[in-house]
């Protein structure tokens, strides 16, 4: 074969044979000088063609070297020299496309110009040289300085154009178009994978042929899939070479991988491959899904299989096959069991192909162990890498626009690489879209281009429809785009939210920095668009979320930007697995959008290791699914915002899946602070303006004062509070206007102070209001004086232009009320709300009353939250804890005291509520001594003393007057009856059960009933004057209460009594039982002073337990105690003398000697003392057992902690207490008490 024949050989001759032959010829000794030109030209040409086909850069370099050598040998005068110049230009341009070396383009242009010079006008091949120069300019330069050469070459090409010999469309395109931008790229071509090389070897060396395998090999990526296909082919080939039968061989297969990886395409070619090698009779292909089959019946799938068998068989492709076993359908498992049997019966006729995600398909195969043997082959579809995605994107652009689309920076240039890298950051995650996600990127690029071109046309600028700019490919520069964003401007126009605006600006600065790093092809700084929004309602969280999403869309970080608002109830299911499905469905629907989860703390079901509550598994499942699905990586096309109150959100993050904190950095949360007073005023003005309303300056001041008070309440409504207040003002304004004649009603609505607060000027009359508030309380002068002092401080503070609450260091808000019962502690506390509300400290006059038991929990860990809840409920109000001394009893109560001390130092509570703890003197002193910090938290102690007898009688008189009862003795303070009552009350107050005003109210009730009982028929039926109550009846009521209270109290044995103390029974007082003469309402047995002497004698009977009655309470005619026996006996005898003989005899029989001891009384007192002793002993035993139990629990906790630290049990079994030590539940490890130091 001559050199000419070799160089012009048929293209059907294999490239590899030509390359090998050329190299062999060049190795001959005779191949020297000009004889080497032809084989070098052939070698260069064939190497270049093979490099394009195989994407082999080494072949490309060898082609360039061979062409250079040929040119160096061939003289320029040779007729083939121009062809050799063009031959070298082609691989140079190819290398430029791959490696981006501008010198290659310039050298190629120089070679074309030389070739054009060697082919002057009239040369037969000049047209080809002109066209080569045009093509190089068109595809590889696009520089303005080349436009003259391009234009002149185009005109010459048109003049040389011969329609009978030249390509019409190609020539016209080159001659009429403007130069393209340079297609520079530093992205290497996709090298042939090992599987592709092996298939090429089989084709070259063994003559293997199969168009279906060829198609699979031409697909981008999928190395493991291609390798598995060759293994299946190899198995078939070997069995056939061995002469064995393929009957019984099963070729069912499972395809695992993310969507968009080509599973369906490969499945079709796999079926065609099996049919081409006669492993199945037909390549019929039925495509269905696991969901469709699982929700149908066995009969339906049976009919489909029978129909396929009638058509000689084929393949059934079941996508998302895991839906058979995910529990979403009733028939899924039954249908799968049926298919398992059909696979075994029809293995030579029907191939079953199952597809799905990796993790779900593992669960699918766990359904039945027989599935693994019936589906022996598996194809793993790995996600495409960046280089593969880049080439796929290039093919998409080239295919859609027939190669006409020009790309700034080149189709494999920087901007295209940045776009693909952004997409690739989601690689490896379940659900990564691969080719489908690439289609989304492709669509986004051309949407941006369309918007850009539209804007350019609006401005009258020239535009190129076949040009993709940098902004089209990777989006706008964030630092510039944010300034043009309407949503960004609206965000900065919002009132307040300074911290939120700073946080968002910091985030966007980081986004802009990452944009620069991407252009420098550096890894972006890790960040997440997902955020936590913390704040009270009405602070603008939802509005900011919408603007935030819109800004992200404007910056190109989200494909949609729409905001979807969801509540925890939308996620939580009512059955096992339902919460996961709901959560996944919501997250899937929010791709490219902003998902706002309001009140997200409700996803925490509660419960903790130390508490008794169990966690809600359905809510926990939602959190776990969010952690699994939301990766918070750069480039993730979704933004999830969790909103809620800070305290509850932090509690949730501390107690749920730790991965949630990594997805949502709560430390970097956007904090929506409550609006300040100036910001609230600005909001009020905006709302008034929007609604065409107005208010006087005074009215606005009142409104802001009310809002300022309301801020102390938990979960202050902020902007919503302003709207609610306006609604109330509108109603008040309308009510006020409705009282005017229609003609006097103005059209413009201008609110007055009274519209916002009907008692807006209460501070001006605070002194008067305070006196009115306490006017019905007797003996409270000192308390009123102290409160007046506080009010004066608040008034002066306001006059000086400051808020009254700024003087809280001068006006205490924590009080201790100490004193005996009935002295007005509760009543005073209830009125403290109005007092502090008038001073401007509180947002409500309400008083939250609770007992110590409402603060104390029933198990460890419950008391703290329970106490905090009570304090949160009382924010902006008065919290009154009655009988607070009970907080010093028990371990759980101590926890409540510790929590209370901590709360009173927290900014959220200090000065925002008034706390009053009340109780008896001694017990309250014990409580304050129990915790050193408690006394410092309650510096203000108000003592409530026992009321004087006169004050008690004044309370009695007022209570009787409320029911229109009049007792002359109570009004005549100088009368003997009044003095007798004073004496009786004084002696009654000496008893331990004395209740001061409380007992006076009981007395008043009894006296009212007695007055109604003694009223005449006329008085009962009229609305006339007040009902009278005689002084005698009043004294009898008091005497009866004294006897009743004395009878309740335990009486000491006779050894405790004074020898000369006469017994009460001997003094003739009426008894609780007996005839009417001894009951209330009968005539008194003793008049006036005799009653006082009787009560004084009772005091002597109580001995040491009752203090001596002060002389001021004794009537003037009361004898000294030592003379009381004889005096009372004389008085009694005089009384008996005046009675009937029978009555006198009965009383004399009932009268024991004064010194004689009553055995029944002594026995009762002894029994009561014994019962008390038993009760006290049991209480001490109970407390001792509790202390021992707590100590055992602490000891067990220390032991378990030390066992865990020792790490002896590698399996992690729990340790169980046994005699002498601990053993793990696995039974293999033992630790003695001595080893634990116990």
UniProtKB/TrEMBL annotation:
Any one GO molecular function term: ATP binding
Protein name: AAA+ ATPase domain-containing protein
Family as reported in the entry's similarity comment: Belongs to the CbxX/CfxQ family.
SUPFAM superfamilies from the UniProt entry: P-loop containing nucleoside triphosphate hydrolases (SSF52540)
Stretches for region Disordered: 1182-1203
Protein species of origin: Phanerochaete carnosa (strain HHB-10118-sp) (White-rot fungus)
Ranges annotated as biased composition (Basic and acidic residues): 1182-1199
Annotated AAA+ ATPase domain residues: 249-385, 528-676, 811-948
Pfam families to which the protein is assigned, alphabetical: AAA, AAA_lid_6
Keywords: ATP-binding, Nucleotide-binding
């Amino acid at each position: 074969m001559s050199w000419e024949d070799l160089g012009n050989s048929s293209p059907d001759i294999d490239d590899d044979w030509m390359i090998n032959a050329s190299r062999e010829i060049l190795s001959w000794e005779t191949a020297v000088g000009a004889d080497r030109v032809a084989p070098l030209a052939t070698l260069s040409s064939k190497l270049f063609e093979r490099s394009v086909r195989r994407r082999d850069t080494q072949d490309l370099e060898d082609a360039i070297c061979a062409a250079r050598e040929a040119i160096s040998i061939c003289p320029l005068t040779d007729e083939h020299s121009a062809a050799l110049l063009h031959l070298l230009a082609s691989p140079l341009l190819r290398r430029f496309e791959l490696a981006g070396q501008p010198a290659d383009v310039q050298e190629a242009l120089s070679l074309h110009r030389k070739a054009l010079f060697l082919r002057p006008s009239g040369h037969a091949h000049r047209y080809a040289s002109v066209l080569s120069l045009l093509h190089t300019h068109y595809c590889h330069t696009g520089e303005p300085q080349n436009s003259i050469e391009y234009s002149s070459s185009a005109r010459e090409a048109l003049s040389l154009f011969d329609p009978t010999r030249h390509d019409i469309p190609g020539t016209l395109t080159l001659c009429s178009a403007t130069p393209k931008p340079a297609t520079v790229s530093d992205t290497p071509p996709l090298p042939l994978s090992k599987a592709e090389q092996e298939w090429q070897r089989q084709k070259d060396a063994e003559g293997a042929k199969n168009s279906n395998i060829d198609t699979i090999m031409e697909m981008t990526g999928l190395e493991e899939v291609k390798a598995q296909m060759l293994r299946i082919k190899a198995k078939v080939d070997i069995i056939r070479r061995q002469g064995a039968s393929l009957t019984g061989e099963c070729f069912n297969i499972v395809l695992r991988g993310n969507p968009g990886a080509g599973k369906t395409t490969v499945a079709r070619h796999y079926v065609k491959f099996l049919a081409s090698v006669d492993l199945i009779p037909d390549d019929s292909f039925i495509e269905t899904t696991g969901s469709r089959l699982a929700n149908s019946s066995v009969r339906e799938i049976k009919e489909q299989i029978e129909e396929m068998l009638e058509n000689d068989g084929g393949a059934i492709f079941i996508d998302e096959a895991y839906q058979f076993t995910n529990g979403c359908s009733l028939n899924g498992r039954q249908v799968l069991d049926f298919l398992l049997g059909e696979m075994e019966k029809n293995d030579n006729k029907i191939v079953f192909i199952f597809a799905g995600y990796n993790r779900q398909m593992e669960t699918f195969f766990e359904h039945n162990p027989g599935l693994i043997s019936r589906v022996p082959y598996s194809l793993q579809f790995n996600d495409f890498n960046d280089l593969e995605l880049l080439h796929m994107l290039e093919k998409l652009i080239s295919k859609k626009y027939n190669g006409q689309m020009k790309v700034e920076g080149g189709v494999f240039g920087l901007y295209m690489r940045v776009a693909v890298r952004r997409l690739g950051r989601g690689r490896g995650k379940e659900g990564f879209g691969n080719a489908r996600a690439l289609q989304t990127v492709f669509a986004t690029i051309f949407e941006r281009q369309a918007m850009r071109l539209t804007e350019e046309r609006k401005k009258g600028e020239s535009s190129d429809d076949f040009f993709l700019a940098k902004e089209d490919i990777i989006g706008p520069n964030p630092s510039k785009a944010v300034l043009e964003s309407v949503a960004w401007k609206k965000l900065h126009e919002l009132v307040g939210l300074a911290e939120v605006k700073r946080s968002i600006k910091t985030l966007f600065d980081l986004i802009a920095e990452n944009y620069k790093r991407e252009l420098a092809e550096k890894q972006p700084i890790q960040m997440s668009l997902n955020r936590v929004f913390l704040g009270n309602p009405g602070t603008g969280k939802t509005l900011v979320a919408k603007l935030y999403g819109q800004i992200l869309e404007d910056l190109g970080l989200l494909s949609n930007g729409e905001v979807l608002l969801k509540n925890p109830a939308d996620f939580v299911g009512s059955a096992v697995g339902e919460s996961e499905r709901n959560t996944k469905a919501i997250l899937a629907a929010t791709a490219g959008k902003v998902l706002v989860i309001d009140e997200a703390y409700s996803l925490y079901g509660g419960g903790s290791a130390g508490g008794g509550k169990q966690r809600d598994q359905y809510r926990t499942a939602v959190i776990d699914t969010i952690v699994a699905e939301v990766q918070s990586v750069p480039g993730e096309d979704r933004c999830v915002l969790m909103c809620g109150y800070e305290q509850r959100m932090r509690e949730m993050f501390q107690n749920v899946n730790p991965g949630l904190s990594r997805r949502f950095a709560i430390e970097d949360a956007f904090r929506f602070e409550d609006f300040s007073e100036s910001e609230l005023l600005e909001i009020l003005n905006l709302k008034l303006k929007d609604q065409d309303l107005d208010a006087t300056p005074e009215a606005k001041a009142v409104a802001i004062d009310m809002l300022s008070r309301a801020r102390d309440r938990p979960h202050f409504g902020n902007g919503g509070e302003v709207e609610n207040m306006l609604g109330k003002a509108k109603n008040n304004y309308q009510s006020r206007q409705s009282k005017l004649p229609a003609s006097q009603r103005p059209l413009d609505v201008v609110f007055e102070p009274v519209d916002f607060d009907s008692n807006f000027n209460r501070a001006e009359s605070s002194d008067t209001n305070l006196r009115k508030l306490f006017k019905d309380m007797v003996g409270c002068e000192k308390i009123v004086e102290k409160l007046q002092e506080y009010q004066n401080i608040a008034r002066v503070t306001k006059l000086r232009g400051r808020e009254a609450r700024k003087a809280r260091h001068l006006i205490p808000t924590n009080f201790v009320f100490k004193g005996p019962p009935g002295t007005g502690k509760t009543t005073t506390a209830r009125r403290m709300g109005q007092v502090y509300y008038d001073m401007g400290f509180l947002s409500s006059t309400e008083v939250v009353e609770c007992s110590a038991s409402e603060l104390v929990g029933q198990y460890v860990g419950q008391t703290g939250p329970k106490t905090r809840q009570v304090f949160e409920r009382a924010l902006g109000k008065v919290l009154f804890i009655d009988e607070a001394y009970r907080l010093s009893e028990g371990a759980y109560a101590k926890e409540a005291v510790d929590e209370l001390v901590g709360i009173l130092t927290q900014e959220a509570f200090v000065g925002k509520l008034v706390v009053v703890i009340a109780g008896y003197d001694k017990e309250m002193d014990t409580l304050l001594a129990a915790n050193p910090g408690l006394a410092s938290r309650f510096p203000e102690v108000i003592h409530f003393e026992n009321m004087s007898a006169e004050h008690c009688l004044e309370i009695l008189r007022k209570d009787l007057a409320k029911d229109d009862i009049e007792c002359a003795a109570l009004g005549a303070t100088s009368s003997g009856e009044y003095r007798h009552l004073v004496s009786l009350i004084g002696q009654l107050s000496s008893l331990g059960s004395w209740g001061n005003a409380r007992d006076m109210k009981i007395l008043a009730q009894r006296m009212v009933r007695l007055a109604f009982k003694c009223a005449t028929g006329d008085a009962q039926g009229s609305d006339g004057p007040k009902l009278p109550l005689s002084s005698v009846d009043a004294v009898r009521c008091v005497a009866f209460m004294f006897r009743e209270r004395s009878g309740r109290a335990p009486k000491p044995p006779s050894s405790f009594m004074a020898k000369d103390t006469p017994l009460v029974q001997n003094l003739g007082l009426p008894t609780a039982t007996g005839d009417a003469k001894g009951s209330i309402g009968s005539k008194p047995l003793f008049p006036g002073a005799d009653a006082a002497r009787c009560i004084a004698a009772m005091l002597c009977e109580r001995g040491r337990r009752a203090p001596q009655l002060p002389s001021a309470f004794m009537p003037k005619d009361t004898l000294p105690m030592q003379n009381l026996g004889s005096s009372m006996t004389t008085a009694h005898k005089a009384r008996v003398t005046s009675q009937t003989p029978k009555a006198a005899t009965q009383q004399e029989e009932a009268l024991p000697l004064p010194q004689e001891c009553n055995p029944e009384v002594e026995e009762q007192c002894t029994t009561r003392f014994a019962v008390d002793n038993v009760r006290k002993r049991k209480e001490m035993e109970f407390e001792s057992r509790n202390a021992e139990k707590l100590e055992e629990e602490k000891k067990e906790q220390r032991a378990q902690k030390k066992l865990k630290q020792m790490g002896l049990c590698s399996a992690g079994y729990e340790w169980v207490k046994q005699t002498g030590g601990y053993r793990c539940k696995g039974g293999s490890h033992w630790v003695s008490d001595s080893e634990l130091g116990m």
